[in-house]
Amino acid sequence: NAGVTQTPKFRILKIGQSMTLQCTQDMNHNYMYWYRQDPGMGLKLIYYSVGAGITDKGEVPNGYNVSRSTTEDFPLRLELAAPSQTSVYFCASSYAGEAKNIQYFGAGTRLSVL
Amino acid sequence: GQQLNQSPQSMFIQEGEDVSMNCTSSSIFNTWLWYKQDPGEGPVLLIALYKAGELTSNGRLTAQFGITRKDSFLNISASIPSDVGIYFCAGRGTSYDKVIFGPGTSLSVIP
Fold this sequence. Notes:
Chain A is mainly beta.
């Protein structure tokens, strides 16, 4: 019953460093999403994918990149970390094509850029 | 773009009290979702609503899909300490549309 798994849970980066946030799901969902959540704010969509090999920008894509080589994995890449990217990052997945299309979330990655 | 507003922004209530919160939109939605986020965790779906006027319960939680399709309401009866968290509403047009999340209502329960 793994669902959506995110690694790492916590990370501290220096300005200019790069890192990849990992996300994997075992529910055979076609859609996957990356959100960021800033203190006191809702979830803002960074990137999403409707299937392997297909990705698209969300509301706040600048400074991030994604890839979707398999159905299960949807990594998020930060190339040049900036303090503005300090946030909690959530990955989610869903099965679009059924009426309900409910998103299931991972536990989050807490990132600080200093 | 589409926006959701949630009120109140935060609530402090006594254990045992009932709670009401709502979510309004500038656009019509075909699906309304209510999620709860426990401290340090990801959001978890509480209730999903698919028809205008629909009233759905999940234990002590009851949510309604407003008849205008631009709002939704969540009620929690007889609150307990584990109800503490952030409650997000979310709306969606068709099942292929992106979900729009509200900013959340933070609930604190005083024992």
